[in-house]
Amino acid sequence: MKLLRRISVILLVLFGAAFVAFKSDDRYFEIAKNLDIFATMFKELNAYYVDDINPNRAMRLSIEGMLKQLDPYTNFYPEDDIEDYMTMTTGKYNGIGATVTPRNGKQLVVMIYEGSPADKAGMKIGDEIIKIDGVDIVNRKGVDIGRLLKGQTGTTVKLAVKRYGQNSPVELTVGRDIVKTLNVPHHGMINDEVGYIQLNDFTATAAKEVKTAFNDLKAQGMKQLVFDLRGNPGGLLNMSVEICNMFLPKDALIVETRGKVAEWNRKYNGTEQPIDTDMPIVVLINSQSASAAEIVSGTLQDYDRAVLIGQKSFGKGLVQTTRDLSYNTKMKITTAKYYIPSGRCIQAIDYTHRNADGSVGKVPDSLKTAFKTKNGRTVYDGGGVDPDIKLEVNAMSSIAANLLTKSMIFDYATKYYFEHPNLKPEKNFSIQDSDYQDFINWLKTKDFTYSTATEKQLDNLEASAKKDKSLDAIQEQIKLLRSKIDQSKQQDLIKFKSEIKEQLEAEILSRYYYQKAMKFVSFEKDDEVQEALKLFKDMPRYQSILRGGK
What we know:
It is a single chain. It contains 18 helices and 23 strands. With 550 residues, the chain is an alpha+beta fold. It has 4 domains: 76 residues; 89 residues, PDZ domain (Pdz3 Domain), CATH 2.30.42.10; 208 residues, 2-enoyl-CoA Hydratase, Chain A, domain 1; 131 residues, no CATH class. The strands form 7 sheets. It has a 6-stranded mixed β-sheet with strand order 10-11-12-15-16-23, with helices on both faces. Strands 1, 13, 14, 17 and 18 form a 5-stranded antiparallel β-sheet that branches. Helix 1 packs antiparallel against helix 2, helix 8 runs parallel beside helix 9 and helix 13 runs antiparallel to helix 14. The longest helix is centred in the N-terminal third of the chain and has 23 residues. The termini are far apart. 30% of the residues are buried.
């Protein structure tokens, strides 16, 4: 309590000094005045509120409330969360190398990094962690499992896990070490001439991993490249610059940042000799390709260096800078917007000018500006990066989506893995029809139900009719429709067999190959990859698109 009073006094002195120093400037006067009010209020609350106030929690909530008025990328990191911040920026952390997620009240291992301490100790995807260092965590709320598993290199953690097919808990002693997550989980040859690189993140080694993958594929005879940025949320700006530099001439402008602090405005040019400026490239993007992924795809589009296939990207044209704060805390703050070589900023949401209710809206089409690529193609700002060849997303069936969200696919893959101990899936792995029938039989033993979009619409109709007192008039028709829907749902496992099998195969492969499971997945049902292969077979069309044709 004495310490808190001392802190309050120090704050008041500092804020009072700020009040005097900045009184000639209206803006700084208002800042100093409000800081003084806040410090005074905090002191009075601490002194007179009926219960003790947790100063850390109170301050954290205050900070979160303030930052909530800004964009979602300006974040405060208390000392306890610095490890998570370092993981995000470097792709490294000290821990066991396993991802644990709460599902249906269980703490399940959903991914393991190849070669990590967890992998070496024999941990398996699908294991349920029930004890950590002898402490039972089953049904305990508020337990941060990730924080308990992380720790300094050289230390160990003792785990008890419930495993499929085992009557008794399995005891594991897992060491902790530096765990490195991969930016490029997979690269390989699709056919004799077309290479494929999947880039999932832009942490500190992203450019190095892409370059290594590219050189490896070129040594295998690659003449054309499919560069997959689908689902890539972005990351470090300098990594996007280095990756663009691989395919663009040295000194070419790659991206420019502009913000309120003029001395931070900067142009980023290629500084190295490129590794290839001629190879035909297709970049795959979708609605979850963001930030650094949009710099790479948008810049290659601006220079007409690649054809983009997929869906419109996310639209994040904001740059964050990390600022060190006191007591080992940090703040990641949006300091600028980035502009790619054509001059466009692809930021899709206006966080600066909020509506009266505090909500934000997308940049309207009427305010978007047209820009030109190197070859004179028209591109637009304010709405993400538009692909050169747009493909519609194949909507997942209700049953497949529910099988995924309710962990039925995950749980059956665990069962399959432990019941096939000698299996080692090869390329283009596919489960047999007998396996799929086994899945259907197994599903009947589970409490699996789901509602289709049509059923939900019927529920709304029934609720509206009941409110209008007209339900009696349409009750029989609703019952008939529900009966027909039930009959149709009974056939869904057969009707959508191909789609469900695809999800099962991907999940089963992850049990054997972890993040590298993509290496064994067939591209035959990947619409974007197939469109890229089709385009590579028609190089006149490829060149025509880059010149502004269709």
